[in-house]
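Protein in question filed below.

…
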Amino acid sequence: MGTNSKTKHAAYAVGPSASEGAPTEGGPKWTDVEIALSTVEGFALNGVDPDNPFEPPSLDLPDDIEERYAMFVEAVHEAQAEIAQLSGDPTEYEDALHTQCELFLNGLNPDELKELAAAQGFKYPALVGLSETSGNPLVHWLDPSYPDDAATKQTIQSVAINRFVALCSGETVGGKTLDQWQQLDASLVSTPSHSVPPGFASWTPTAAEVQAAQEGITSAAGAVEAAKTNGSWADPDLVSALIAAENKLATAHNPALDDLATIRSAAKHQVDQALVDISPHELSTAVQAAKDHDQIAPFHVKVLNAHQVLKLLRASTEKQERLDLQHLAVERAATKATFEASIAELHNALGHGGLPNLTDPGGVAAMVKFLDHAHQAGVAYMDMGGWKPVEPTLAHNDTLQIAQTEIAPWADQQELKDLRVFVVSAGLLTADQAESATKSFCKTLLTHQAYGSSASVASLKHSLQEKIALKNSTKSLPHKAGKAAKAPILAAPRSTFGRQHAEMLSALKQTKAALLALPKSVDPSAVAAWDFGAGKPAHLGGTHPKTLHTGPDGKPWLAKGEATPRGGAVIAAEAATSRALRRAGLPVVPVFATKINGKPASVQPMLVGATEMSSNPSSWSQTDVDDIVRLHVASWALGNHDPHAGNVLRTGEGGLVPIDHGQSFKFYGQDQLSMSFRPNNTTAVYHQAYDAFKEGKLAKGVRINPAAAHSVIKHLESVPDAEWRGLLRSAAYAGAAQKQMKWVPSMRARAAKHHGIAEASVTTKQIAETFLDYAVERKKSLRKDFAAFFLGELKLENAAALQHAGKT
C-alpha cells in the first residue's frame, strides 16, 4: 500500500557512492545516512543541487511519473535501511526522511497523485482530497516512509470506500452524483466488495427475501424515528430490532442478484439517518445481544462511545473501519490500564507519611517515580475524559487530584539547589537550563508536569531557553559607543553539509511542533451551521471586537467581528487568507466566515498553550528567521503587511504560527515589495529580521537565507490559477461590493483601463475579477520578485540562485 508494491521497474542506482559523497578537503565526512537522505532530498528538489542550481541536475529523473516514483521509493527504502543501522536515537533522521517525502509528494499535482495511487491499488482515489483547506490525503498514503499497514493509510482508503458506498445509495459527494463522478473517473464503476465480519453469518436470499428484508428495515426505522420525535429516547428494543433488520440484509449474499450491493448500500444509508443520534441507553439491548453472539468484546463498551460501538454492532460497517475501531479500543484499554496502575502507585506513595524531602535518603528517586506516575495518570485522565464510553467505569480521580495538588506545597518546602538537581534528574531541564531556573519556575514546571500538561511544560522550557539565549546574546554584543556596528558581509559563503543538515533537522522539529499544535480541521459547512452563542469579551488587543466561545465541539473558539461594518468583506478576507496560507504550506489556524447574533464574524479554534513570539530579533534562531522569510513570501502574495511579532504565536513545543489576517489585501495594487513600504504603525517581523541583519543584530551565525523562500514559492507556483482564484473568490466579491475597502479604488482603475471604460462604469463583478487577475499575476511573479528583492535591497548575492531553483 503506497510503497510501489506493484512496481514493474528494475532497480535503479539513485544515490552517490561513498566517494562521490565525500566533501571537499578539510570538510566534515558525510555518513551513509546523510548520503541516503541527500538522495531523497534530491527528488524533492527535482534533482537540482540547491548549492549549485546552475549545474546539471544531480539526479536524472524520468518524465514518467510511475518510473520516478519507483526510483523515489527505492531511495527511501535505502535511507530507512541506513537509519536502522544507527546505534543512537534515529528520531531526527526519521523526521528528516518524513519531511523530504512530503516535499516530493506535495510537489505532484492532484492528477499525478491519483494516477500513482490507482497504480498502487488504491480504490476510488478521485473521492479523497476534495477539501480546498487541507492537503491531499494521497500524499500520506503514497508516502513510503510510513508502513503499508499504518492505521492512517487504512483510514484514507476507508474514507474513499465509504464515499463510494454513499454514491451507490443515491447520495452526492462533493456536490456530484455517481453518474457525474463516473463521467469524470471511469474507475468508479465497480462495486465495493462484500464481506461478513466475525460473529455474523452470511446467507443466500431470493429476490423476494431481499424485498422482505428491505420492508423490515423500513418498518423498524420508522418505529425508531417515531419514538425519537421531539428529542426523546427510543426504546432499546426498537433500536435493537432496527440493527438486527439491517444486519439481516447486510449479511445477504447472492451473486445472481445484480443490484444486491446497491440495495445494501441504500439500506445502510437509511439506517445511518435513523440512528444519526444515539445514546448508550438506546444501545443497551443490542449491545447485550452482540455480546451473546461474540460480535463485540466486553471491553469495547468500556472504552468506546455510543457511535463507535454502534458501528461494531452493524455488519454493514466497512472492514477497515471496523479494524480501526478495534485497534482504537485496544489502545484505549492500554491507556486505561496505565492510568489504573499509576493511580495504585500514587495511592501507595501518598499513604506512607506523605511525600519525602529531596534530602531524605532515596528522596530524589522516590519523587522522580512519583512525578512520573502523576504525569502518566494526568495524561491518561485527560485522554479518557473525552471518550464517553457506553459503559463508563469509576475513575479513581480523587487520588490523582491529591497527588497533583501536593506538588506545589511540597516544592515550596525544598531548597532551590535541590529543586534544580531534581528537575534535571526528572529529565525536565538540562543542567545548563536548571542553573537559570528560579524556585518559582521550578515549582510551576513541576506542577504542570504532575497535571500531565506536556504543552505547558514545553512552553515553560522554551520561555526559559529564550531568556538564556537573550542573556547570552546580550553578553556578546559590543559595548563600544559611537557608530553603529558595520553591516556584515552579505555574500554568505557556501555552507557545509553538517550545518545544512543541522539546520534542516531544526527546521523539521519546529515545523512539526507547529503542525502538532494546530487544532484539528473542521468541515466549513458544519461550522457555518453551529450556534456559538453570545460568548464573553476577549481582551486580546487589535482593532476588531473579539469574543470567546465554547464551540459545539467543546473546545474554546475565538470570534471576531468587523470594527467598522464592511458587509463581511473583512471576514471573508481573513477566512480566504487562512485557506491560502495552508495551501502555501504554512502552519495556520483555520478561520471560518459565519454569523453570530446575525452579524458577520470570523471564528477560529483557539491555539491552546501558545504565546506571542519574542519581538527581539537577537533572540531568534536560524529556524525562526527562515520561518519568517517564508511568512514574508506568503504575506506578500496575499497583500498582508500586518504580521508583527504579536501576530505570530510560539506554540508550546516551539513552533511558529501566524494569526490575525484581517488586513490581507488592504493595500493590493498600491503596495511595494520594499524595505521602505511599512504602512502600519508596527513593523512586520520580516522587516525586523532584515533590519537586524543589516545592522548586525541577529544572533551569532544567524543569517537571511533566500533559499528559505523557495518552499513557499514552489507551493504557490504549483497551485493552478483556477484554484487560486477559487481560494480568493469570496474575498474578491465580498470586498468589491464595499466601496470603503481600501483596495477597491486601485482595482476599479485597473478594470477601467483593461476594459477601456470610465471608472464610473466599472461593475462590481469587473472589480472582483480584476482583483483575482491581479492575485494570479502576483502569485506567478513571486520567484522573480523575491530574487530581485533579496539581491537589490539586502545585497545578498546568493539570492540570484532563487530565480533558478524551481527549474531543472
User: Anything to note?
Assistant: The first strand starts at residue 536 and ends at 537. The beta strands are 536-537, 546-550, 556-560, 592-596, 599-605, 611-612, 648-650, 656-658.
